[in-house]
């Protein structure tokens, strides 16, 4: 690979995490932000700022609304624009779809990026790329964004899982090649939430506690018999939840 002054993938991801999400740097990566590196022209225009975000909600809307109806209307292009009307927002020169009137009042606090492009048209490969920033390969499974944050930053709350994923878990890479403790707590159905943590209708608290103790005893026996890291990591995460 030819040496250039452009930012590497690792540099970009690390700086974004540091400035936006509050991720602490590993000692081995401190050189990326050294005065020498900046003096050499590597990201000289990058202004570091103190992180302000404590939590992040990442909405990945598979099969969701069209960009033409939400963040990227084309009011002057009748060939691609449908019946949705573009409305003004609190940000000068920024238009969004008419179905987001409340969001329009807050757009001066938002940032819309319309310059993203991809060479991947296949849904499965594109989904994987958007979650990991890597191409789909048969020989390796890369971690998702939340797993990177957990790996570098550690848990934000020691009594909670590192992050929660709501939706079809078959589309999410989880912790990838990292330890399972950096993976998300998977909740497939938001209507039912995490299973087996609340009593069913007609079950008293005492009976529910008895069932839970019995389940924990069976789980402990299974873990002792099958010493698999993934099993223990999932049990610990479920207990935290």
Helix and strand arrangement:
Layout: H1 9-21, H2 35-39, E1 86-88, E2 95-97, H3 101-104, H4 123-132, H5 145-153, E3 164-166, E4 185-187, H6 205-225, H7 229-240
Parallel strand pairs: 3-4
Antiparallel strand pairs: 1-2
Computed CA radius of gyration, to the nearest angstrom? 23 Å
Integer average pLDDT? 76
Which strand order do you get reading across the main beta sheet?
1-2
Spatial separation of the terminal alpha carbons = 45 Å
Described by its quaternary structure, the protein is: single chain
Helix and strand run: HHEEHHHEEHH
Q: What is the tally of beta strands?
A: 4
Helix proportion of residues, in percent? Answer: 25-40%
Number of helices: 7
Strand content: under 5%
Q: Based on helices, strands and strand pairing, what is the structural class?
A: mainly alpha
Q: How many separate domains make up the residues? A: 3
General shape = elongated
Low-confidence stretches: 1-5, 20-45
Largest sheet: 2 strands, antiparallel
How would you sum up this structure, described in words?
This protein is mainly alpha-helical and 241 residues long. It has three domains: 1-54, no CATH class; 55-117, no CATH class; 123-241, no CATH class. Helices cover 31% and strands 5% of the residues. The protein contains seven helices and four strands. The protein has helices spanning 9-21, 35-39, 101-104, 123-132, 145-153, 205-225, 229-240; strands spanning 86-88, 95-97, 164-166, 185-187. It has a two-stranded antiparallel ribbon with strand order 1-2. Strands 3-4 form a two-stranded parallel ribbon. Strand 1 (86-88) and strand 2 (95-97) form a beta hairpin. Mean pLDDT is 76; it is low at 1-5 and 20-45.
